[in-house]
Amino acid sequence: MKQSDTDTSLAVFIDFENLALGFGGRRSKTSKRFEMDRVLDRLVEKGKVIVKKAYADWSRYSDYKNQLHEHAIELIEIPKRSMTGKNSADIRLCVDAMDLCYAKEHIQTFVIVSGDSDFSPLVSKLKENGKHVIGTGMKDSSSNLLIENCDEFIYYEDLERPSGNDPSIDSSLPKIKRKAFELLMDSIRGLVRENKEVLWSSLIKETMKRKRPSFDETYHGYRSFSNLLEDAEKHGVVRLKTDPKSGTYVVVGFGKAETKR
Q1: What is the pLDDT of residues 209-261, one digit of tens each?
Q2: How far is CA 256 from CA 65, 66, 168, 186, 238, in A?
Q3: Based on the number of CB atoms within 10 Å of its own CB, is 20 exposed (0-12), middle (13-18) or buried (19 or more)?
Q4: Does 130 fall in a domain?
Q5: Per residue in 182-214, pLDDT tens?
Q6: What share of the chain is helix, strand, coil (3-state, %, to 5)?
Q7: Residues 11 and 129 sit within 8 Å (Cβ to Cβ)
Q8: What are residue 134's DSSP bridge partners?
Q9: Minimal CA–CA distance to 88: which of 11, 12, 24, 17?
């Protein structure tokens, strides 16, 4: 496995007011509240998130503060617009992002969680400095200028959709085992979205731990991660093959292998 597959570092900057306004005004609502964990679960599929900052007048969004604190997001207080001017949050976010860009060369991916076209110059400057820029926002409230300027743009609505025709997990299995299989499937789906050509067992485990830092296969009743994969194959969750050179498992698909007649 190439080291570059697992060593990507991300910095996330959240224009929370723009996001909350877009979420509140969308036409179709499958969820009543904005859920930051959906965004972070998607981002950890890309690498390790090491900086997380959110900008807002938090007196207006106090009901979200606990959720953001639980994800170790630093809350940057931006006073009321009447006191600081319309673009104070935008300016502070841009200054912090550019400061990090120059100070931390090892951070190669910057995530701007906003749909505001005012961030297009920031995106251009980050790309000019060799950074990969991902945007995230609501479909109805994200500027096409910002979307087209990013290297990649993730719509929040796409994070809410159920994913395809994955195999069902036997409901008779113990809950602790089902939880392990669900996290395994979720992590594999993420790696497939990231176009990983070879799904090494070590890469899958690292993604599982990024999604759930407390993950430990022994808690779920397995002596090793290989034992977990073998049991998942036994129950028709994944299909495995053994790499002839390293002798380690590689996941080659979901579900049971078709039997030849």
Answers
A1: 988 888 999 999 999 999 999 999 999 999 999 988 888 999 998 877 654 44
A2: 43, 42, 11, 17, 7
A3: middle
A4: yes
A5: 999 989 988 888 778 889 999 999 999 988 888
A6: 45, 20, 40
A7: no
A8: 111, 152
A9: 17
> What's at 39, amino acid-wise?
V
Domain containing 219 — which CATH number?
1.10.10
**Would residue 38 count as lying in a domain?**
yes
Q: Amino acid letter at 113? A: V
Residues 148 and 65 in one domain: yes
Residue 259 in any domain: the answer is no
What count of other Cβ atoms lies within 10 Å of the Cβ of residue 181? 20
- What is the spatial distance between Cα 189 and Cα 27, in angstroms, rounded to a whole number? 28
- Reference 102, options 83, 75, 130, 139; nearest CA is 130
Q: Where are the alpha helices (DSSP H) in the chain?
A: 16-24, 36-43, 65-70, 81-84, 88-103, 120-128, 144-149, 156-160, 175-193, 201-211, 225-234
Threshold 0.85, pTM exceeds: no
CA distance 154 to 133: 11
CA distances (Å), 121 to each of 135, 144, 172, 248, in order? Answer: 13, 14, 54, 46
> Are 201 and 147 in the same domain?
no
Q: How confident is the model at residue 81 (pLDDT cuts 50, 70, 90)?
A: low
Give the span between the Cα atoms of 112 and 114, in whole angstroms. Answer: 6
Q: Which two tokens stand for residue 91?
A: 């300016």
Q: Are 142 and 158 in contact (CB under 8 A)?
A: no
Q: Are residues 131 and 203 in the same domain?
A: no
For 107-140, letters b (16+ CB in 10 Å) and e give bebbbbbbbbebbbebbeebeeeebbbbbbbbee
